[in-house]
Each structure stands twice: as C-alpha cells, then as structure tokens.
Amino acid sequence: MNLNENNLSGHIPKEVMGITSLNIYLDLSGNGLTGSIPMEVGMLEHLAVLDISRNKLSGKIPESFGKCTSLIYLYLHENLLRGTIPQSLSSLRAISEIDVSSNNLSGKIPTYLEGFHLLNYLNLSFNDLEGQVPVEGVFKNKSGLSMMGNTRLCGGIPQLNLPRCPSNIYKKRKLSRRTVAVKVLNLQTSKASKSFIAECKALKSLKHRNLVKLITVCSSIDFQQNEFKALVYEYMPNGSLEEWLHPSDSINSGQEQRHLNLIQRVNIAVDVANALDYLHNLCHASLVYCDLKPTNILLDTDMTAHVGDFGLARMLQLAISHPFSSSRQANSSETSSIGIRGTIGYAAPEYGMGSEVSTFGDVYSYGILLLEMFDHRE
Predict the structure, then answer these.
(1) Annotated catalytic residue 302
(2) Catalytic residue among 99, 291, 309, 362
(3) What does the pLDDT look like over 345-375, one tens digit per residue?
(4) pLDDT exceeds cutoff 80 at 158
(5) 136 Ramachandran zone, left/alpha/beta (phi>0; psi -120 to 50)
(6) What mean pLDDT do residues 64-81 have?
(7) Strand runs (DSSP E) across the chain, as ranges?
(8) Residue 144 binned pLDDT confidence (cut-offs 50, 70, 90)
(9) In 181-217, which positions are buried (b, 16+ CB within 10 angstroms) versus exposed (e)?
(10) Phi-psi bin for 161: left (phi > 0), alpha (psi -120 to 50), beta?
(11) 75-80, long-range: CB < 8 A, 24+ apart
(12) How buried is 370 (Cβ within 10 angstroms: 0-12 exposed, 13-18 middle, 19+ buried)?
C-alpha cells in the first residue's frame, strides 16, 4: 500500500494498521499525519517495509512494534516522536535498516542493537540520546551509522570522534552482602583526576537524608600499574524516578508494571524540595545542582527520594550574595571553569543564553519536574 506524498492529514486510522494481509510494504511518508502511532501496528506481523517518515507524528514508539517480526526496513524519521527506543524492538531480528532520525527521542542507545547481525544501516541522528555508544555489530561500521546531533553521546569507535565517557556506574555486592553503587572515573578524560579530588571535597561535606550518601572513595593502582579512582555510593534499590514516571520506557516486558500513587508523588516532591533547600540555604557554601531531572532522583526501599549524580559539571559554588545572610557575600574572584551542561527541557532557558548559574535555575527545573509528576507532561 503506497499513500506517500498525498497531503493526507489527521490521525493514522487504526483500521489501516489492522490490515493483516499487508505483507510487502506500507508507505504513508511525506504527508501531514498527526497524533500517535496506533498500538495496532503490532498486527502487521508479515509486513516487510514500514515507512511513516516525514509526518508530524508524536508520542512514543509503541511497544507493539516488537510483534512486527518480519520487518526488514523501518523508517520513522522526521517526526515528533519522544521517549526512549523501546526494549520490544529487540525481537526484530530480520531488520536491515532503521531510521529514527530528527525526532525527540531520549535515553540510552539499546545494547540489543549490537546483536542485529543483518542490520547494516542505523540512523539515530538529531535526537537527544545520551550515554555510551556500543561498539559491536552495526556500530563498528561508520559508513552505515549516523549519530550526529546527539550532544550527550560518548564512546563508540574512534572514527565517530565522540568524547570519551567520563565514568561508569556499576552495581557491586561487597563481602558484607551490602549492595553499593560504584562510580569509576575514566582517567583518560581531560582533568579527570582534578575532578575526582574536587568532587570528593564537595561530597564529603554534604550530609542530608535526601541526598545519595557517599560511603567511601578509592584511589589506587591496578594490576597493570594504571591509576584507578572510584566513588562508592549508597545503592538505591527502587531505581530512578524516571523509571516510575515512564515505566514503559525503561522496564523489560517481564517486569511488573510500576506505578506511583498521589501520596507517593507528593512525598517525592517534598523530598526533592528538602534536598534543594539544603543545597541552596543550609550548606557551608550555597550550591547549585544545575541538572535536576527524574533520572537523577533515586528511590530507596521506602520510596524516599534522594538527589544523586553530583558530577562537577552540575555542582558549582555560587558567586553571588545570599539574599538572607550578610555573611555570604560574593567573592569577585570566585569563578568556575566548569561549563554548565543541563538537560534540554529541564535547564533554565537563560542558561542557553550564557547567563550565570543561580539557585533560581534549580527552582525552574523543580517546576518542570512537578509538571511532569502531577500533570503527566514530559
């Protein structure tokens, strides 16, 4: 069925996705279609080519795509799709080409894409993906891979010219059977050692029930005589707030569906507010967090919220007067050489125009967080 370039508008009818006899291709590209992709797309189990690119489709990529096991070519580029690349796509073992470029997709690149042996073209460019780029499978072939426009990606093969990943977080179990989170710094990154020392100094003075607790630090030489530095944090068994607000984005199909009731949402909002109040007003020197978002809010066994990920790019000493204390006057020589790298959608707009960081930026991010928690906005 070919309906491309016909100036079609409105939603994609569910009935179209329910034509199970389609076994070659469905092309709706280059129209003005809006709304979300119907969940009924999973009924196209025998379809080989699906092209719904160059429309105005929004929402998330449906999990039901995983049922389209005969797909060879999948084109979703140049739409307004958001959320993460779903885990269910791991069942598309026959896929040869995937193009989801020029959308608003976020999160990490799924590692299952490395195992698609028939995949020879993958275009993820111009989204908001983050984290480490895999290095196996299609990710070894620069000519069949496009990553441009994702400024928070790192690693990958050298030909991609991406920055090195600064650190890795591991879940480890010590001999005492206490589970901890270990952040290992990549010392090949520029100024990583200085960042480690400065971060230790900053974190050791922070003690609050709504901040992730730093247990200890490690600085040593490994068996290959390479320098090794790591931070050991308290482990949060209930994961991040992101996994609870948008469970379909982050949980595997075998896991129980997560849900937060109203009381839990209010308690989490209060916990985060307490953490910000501590950082802004109760520390020895006021601190600006700069990257408040659901992925940086971790939940313990009792669903108490803890603000974590105090990377130095996000934690800066204020160089302004404190409005409530004459003892906190600004030091004109006190500046920071660390650039602000907040998250688009959460960072205050003035940061993008070169304004100095302030506690008001954190308050703005907190407001966006509240909208996401209580008004289901993202």
Answers:
(1) no
(2) 291
(3) 888 887 777 777 788 888 999 999 999 999 8
(4) yes
(5) beta
(6) 92
(7) 9-11, 25-27, 32-34, 49-51, 73-75, 82-83, 97-99, 104-108, 121-123, 128-133, 145-146, 152-155, 167-173, 179-185, 214-221, 227-234, 287-288, 297-299, 305-307, 316-317
(8) confident
(9) bbbebebeeeebeebbeebeebbeebebebbbbbeeb
(10) left
(11) 75/29, 75/50, 75/51, 75/99, 76/52, 76/100, 76/103, 77/53, 77/101, 77/102, 77/103, 77/123, 78/53, 78/54, 78/102, 78/103, 79/52, 79/53, 79/54, 79/55, 79/103, 80/56, 80/104
(12) middle
The C-alpha atoms of residue 101 and residue 120 are separated, in whole angstroms, by 16
* DSSP symbol at 315: -
- Cα separation of 139 and 121, whole Å? 9
Nearest-angstrom CA–CA distance, 21 and 45:
9
Per-position DSSP letters for 162-180, written without gaps between them = PPPP-EEEEEEE-TTS-EE
Q: Is 181 helix (H, G, I), strand (E, B) or coil?
A: strand
**Within 13 A of 114's CA, how many CA atoms are on the CB side?**
12
**Spatial separation of the C-alpha atoms in residues 313 and 290, rounded to whole Å:** 8
* Structure confidence by residue, pLDDT tens digits, 73-121: 999 999 999 999 999 999 998 899 999 999 999 999 998 998 888 999 9
The Cα–Cα gap between 155 and 114 comes to: 15
Average pLDDT of the chain, as a whole number: 79
- One-letter amino acid of 184: V
- DSSP letters, 14-74, are HHHHT-TT--SEEE--SSEEESBPPGGGGG-TT-SEEE--SS--BSBPPGGGGG-TT-SEE
pTM for the full model? 0.49
Residues 6+ apart with CB under 8 A from 354: none
Of 60, 51, 63, 58, which Cα lies nearest the Cα of 22?
A: 51
On the CB side of 193, how many CA atoms lie within 13 Å of its CA?
A: 6
- Which residue's structure tokens are 């073209």? 121
